Amino acid sequence: MSDDRRVLTNRQGHPIADNQNQRTVGSRGPATLENYQFLEKISHFDRERVPERVVHARGATAFGEFEAYGTVGGEPISKHTRAKLFQEKGKKTEVALRFSTVAGGRDSSEAIRDPRGFAVKFYTEDGNWDLVGNNLGVFFIRDAIKFPDFIHSQKPDPVTFERQVANRVFDFWSQSPEALHMITLVLGPRGIPTSYRHMQGFGVNTYKWVNAAGETKLVKYHWLPRLPVQSWTEADAAVAQGQELGVHTRDLYAAIARGDFPQWELNVQLMDDHDHPELDWDPLDDTKTWPENDFPLLPVGLMTLNRAPENFFVESEQIAFGTGVLVDGLDFSDDKMLVGRTFSYSDTQRHRVGPNYLQLPVNSARAAAHGVNTNQRDGAMAYGVDGHGADPSINYEPSLRAGLREADKPAHQAQGPVISGQLTRERIERTNDYQQPGERYLLSEQWEKDELVANLVGNLKQCDRAIQERMVWHLFLAEDELGQRVGDALGISAGDVKHLQPVPTQGWGPAEQSRLDNLGSNGPRDVAGLVMTHCVPNQRVQLAQDEEPAAV
Ligand code: HEM
């Protein structure tokens, strides 16, 4: 019988005639050690895993395109950035987007309470641009030096390997009040989106735009889904998780397979490039949002995801994003998180994927008009030789011979404001850790407030009394009602905690002292006219029977 299927081989190209039996001396063994076919197969299997990401291990990637509008705020976008991908209306750029959870391992549940990663790679004609963000718009800490401690508090106990022990998580948070804004989001329903398609995305950190004249603006990025924002309660998520650990990956790939391509519009907020002393928060602080009533959202383009990976490991496990990956016309700000992140991503990828991770097709700057031409050579798993000059022997620069040359210099050499200061270790001055968490609570929908309170109480009940008291103290400083509701459920009043002094790690000024003097009776904050990033409606998709949130 003819069989036109391809013949199985090993990686040396040797045809495999028997894939069922090892080579042995006689049918009962012993096995021979020269059995190349078996050794190649089993030793490759032994190495099938690369280390999983130290954070954001569980994720799913999809591919598609970004289409530029050519304008920002009704003006040509060239006024503020010269980045080529944005310039012409209708210009399309290929993208990859990896969604993820943060704390769990590679096969962990996707219906877990956690921020979601939202990492976009743009394959532009000027090389790659990565925008590595999340679905909540802010972050827990504002200085990168705290990141390893923060993540350790979120990861399993190193002795017992118990997961998400509330006493660890809230121990860290109780001593890091800058986390309060993010806590009001993660512990509420937005901490469990119903799918990757029904959530917002944000760059979170502050970046810069640069125009052709070298003029700079501060910029924040927002991805707004065309689908409504939808979330689950804790009880809904338990139902989803009971049926399937990978609900979000399955949802994403099923939607793409049926041609229901998810879309997000990219919007930006812009600010002049200086420290804005008129604001009572710092524009470089990633625990803050920029109120949209003062800094409106300006649409710049539309992203569509239309392809799932052909192979999950090759295109999702090995994809590598980094905040340092920017193209001409885009730049860093001095945000202390951003600088730390920028070192960390490529560093971990050289370890996780290997020193030549940028030669893998999913990571290579495949759309770069000038190609990828470097003098970087060799190292583990070099897949090929990067683009070189006419004489491939010239792997150095400068040279009079036929090697690579430097690109043309930009018209201006220096850009941005002049910075001066002495070396120091100090937190930023305008920490203002309580205002936006309080405002965020007040502007939440009623079911979001109820869920937030129920989840805070449920977690804090598992914590030491000192941690409970400190958290209630923070919550009262943010908003009376929030402190009152959580405190009532724990049996802790404002009077019980009023004697507590600020924690050593926090910023403190007259505004905080005044709230502490009146703890529990400050009255609601004024949120009239305030528009924060979460102010798009949030629909509950109900899966659980118990419609009412747990009584607190
Ligand atoms: C100093 C603070 C931070 C550090 C040191 C840090 C470090 C890391 C590291 C080491 C990874 C693994 C990367 C890999 O293995 O490929 C990672 C992944 C990620 N981080 Fe961060 N991170 C920080 C803050 C943030 C913030 C503020 C956000 C959101 C705005 C964020 C979003 C992400 C995302 C989305 C991924 C997954 C990327 C992917 O899908 O491959 N990180 N981070």
Written description of the protein model:
By secondary structure, this protein is α+β, with helices and mostly antiparallel strands. It has 3 domains: 1-48, Cytochrome C Oxidase, Chain J (Irregular), CATH 4.10.91.20; 59-359, Catalase HpII,  Chain A, domain 1 (Beta Barrel), CATH 2.40.180; 435-540, no CATH class. Helix content is 26%, strand content 16%. It has helices spanning 36-46, 84-87, 147-154, 166-174, 180-186, 234-243, 247-257, 312-317, 336-352, 435-443, 446-460, 465-478, 480-490, 494-497, 510-517, and strands at residues 59-68, 71-72, 75-76, 92-101, 116-124, 127-134, 201-202, 207-210, 216-225, 229-231, 263-272, 298-307, 330-332, 538-540. The strands form 3 sheets. Strands 1, 4, 5, 6, 7, 8, 9, 11, 12 and 13 form a 10-stranded antiparallel β-sheet that branches. A two-stranded antiparallel ribbon has the order 2-3. A hairpin with a 2-residue loop joins strand 5 (116-124) and strand 6 (127-134). Helix 11 (446-460) crosses helix 13. It is globular, with a radius of gyration of 26 Å. The model has no long low-confidence stretch (mean pLDDT 94). The structure holds protoporphyrin IX containing FE. Protoporphyrin IX containing FE binds at residues 53-56, 59, 98, 100, 117, 119, 132-134, 139, 144, 147, 204, 286, 320-321, 337, 340-341, 344-345, 348-349, 352.
Derived from helix and strand composition plus strand pairing, the structural class reads alpha+beta
Enter the CATH topology name of the largest domain: Catalase HpII,  Chain A, domain 1
Helix content: 25-40%
pLDDT below 50 for ≥5 consecutive residues: which ranges?
Answer: none
Bound molecules: protoporphyrin IX containing FE
Q: What is the average per-residue confidence, as pLDDT, rounded to a whole number?
A: 94
Q: How many separate helices?
A: 15
Whole-number radius of gyration? 26 Å
The largest pleated sheet is described as: 10 strands, antiparallel
CATH superfamily of the largest domain: Catalase core domain
Order of helices and strands: HEEEHEEEHHHEEEEHHEEHEHHHHHHHE
Percent of residues in β-strands: 15-25%
**Number of beta-strand segments:** 14
